[in-house]
Predict the 3D structure of the following.
Amino acid sequence: MKIELDILRNAYDYFEESIKYYEIADEDGTHEEAFSDYNSKIKWKMAYITLIQSFELLIKAELKKILDILIYENMDIPITSKSKTISGTKGIERLYNCNPKIISLEEKGFIKECIEIRNSFVHCDVDLDTAEIKPKYCKMYSLFAKMHNELNEESNEVYIRIVNEHRKTHGNVMEFSKGYVVFRNVEMLEEFKNDFLKEIANNKRTGILIDKAGVKYNRYPYGNTEWNVIPPLHEFCPDCAAALGEFHYEDCDIEICPKCHNQLLSCDCELEVYVE
Ligand SMILES: [Zn+2]
Ligand SMILES: [Zn+2]
């Protein structure tokens, strides 16, 4: 059997592989080492490499749509079957110069940075943190979808099939690309993280609770095992993301009431944080 893939079909092929690797590596958004499977997590590398590969091919498809010869590194010499095609980094520059409407200056810089990371994965030691790679992956993925639409190929049957077969993943990745970050192993919107940082700075001052009669109680920080039957298994509180030794954050369902020793969230003690 003979197989022929044009540039776009080749891009889809890597794109599909990338989604499959992503589905193995993501483990439903797990970032904590103790709760991750190492052999699954290392698939982030392949998910990332294949996504960048598909992206570079998409750039070429985009250039080719403008003019065939644009996909070649050197356009000033006669094109033969041996002519070298343009690299991803140069390709994105050329595409930007040909049509700055397709991508923004910020996106161009981001894409080049992502290509550099891919190069280091392929040629050097691999050093990756899922908290850093996931936001990059999702943003590149959404740029792939955006640039793909520029080609007017939204209804391409191969693309439709891939997205349909991975509908849930596609939806999750596109949602994550809208500004999610990973902080304390939790996926959250960047704005939420900024508010959280302010709360963390204030955490030390929230150690006393007071009841209606004016009696004060010292709170149990996350990790305290005096009344919690189960020792802390997670690096951060699984409900409110407090670090070991920090006081729990608002409405945490794990915090124990220092007055009645039941769940603080549901007990009848009506304690409030005492502010000096
Ligand atoms: Zn908590
Ligand atoms: Zn209570």
Notes: The chain has nine helices and five strands.
